[in-house]
Structure prediction request, 391 residues.
Amino acid sequence: MHWHVNVLRLLTQVAATKEYASDTEFCKFRWQLFHTSLTAVLKTLKPGISKLQIIHWADGHFCCTVYSLGPYIVDYEEQLLLACIVHGWCAHCTTVHGQLDTNATAICHCQKLTETLVENMTLGVMWDEYGTVRDLVPFMNDFPQADIHKLIAPNILHQLIKGGYKDHLVYWVETYVCKQFIYTCNLLMLALPARIAAVESFSGLWHFLQGCGFKQWTGDDSKSMMKVYIAAIEGHVPTEIGCTFCAYLECCYLVQQNIISESAISKIEDAIRWFHHYKEVFKIHKIVMTFLLPCQHAAKHYPSLVRLSGALNCLCLSITKTKHICAVKKPYWHTNKFKALDQMLVINQWLDKISAAHANFSNCRMLKGSVLSGALSLIGMVFHSFNMSPH
Prediction:
């Protein structure tokens, strides 16, 4: 299974040359290849999710059990790929793309709805009115109880923290400062990093010596910056912008709790409601013209997704990113860059065999100690037997 996952990570990275990058048929081939690869990887699990099994549970009881595929945590682009949804639409509901920033009621996407649309609608109608790609066969069709629209879990890191917070709110504040303070914007843009760097060291706070002037924000950088950013912008922006940040950060902190009760879900819903209320200040000041942003719209679905999947204990794409580094980046660095994919597959096979051998040797206690400790222990045994020998 480990080797199959590595192959899947490689297949999702299949790139195109410039002449085929915008080719519709090639794009469809890549998308279908991804779904076919998922089917091949998960096919060994199909018997377990198709038939009842009698399992001895930890409480001592034997129960008839049927398994199902668990939550799938991916970024927005891969959510669209998994659910066969058009870019700019929501992967969870049928809200029209032009109404993502409204409170328009919409029904939830589900596998039965997609099948009904495929049977009764044309390709163009499904694309324009429902945001669904008709000419792809999703992998969930091959598995029972695998409605991908219900399996897609909240992506706290990329949708809330790096998406809604860093890419949207922080950028809007910088745009507001540059627009409202035309003559002194350079001084203010220098003052914000200075105020962030001036934060005193305290338990749980990072000390950003260079302010927020680093080239690439990691997930940890964004989470730590959230704790000091409101204090840095206070006095430079209207109160409504500060309230927008407060409501949004309240939502972020609540969804990261290890235990989320019904009262916590109510607080999440209130925070989301206040965030959408206060963020209108950016439209009033003409920082943005519209809020057709799927990352912010997805926050509305978090309460229902938490009820469906439970608290995910801050699980995010950091796990899969680590896998991506091990399965794609590092093997690529060890190739000669000519037809690198074949070399990467071989490298991953070798690494998997080495890992399997290491696990086997560890179970056999063959890796306990070192050559030196083994030699010293052998010398000690010889010396001990020499002393015990009769004279």
In short: Confidence is low (pLDDT under 50) at residues 1-5, 382-388.
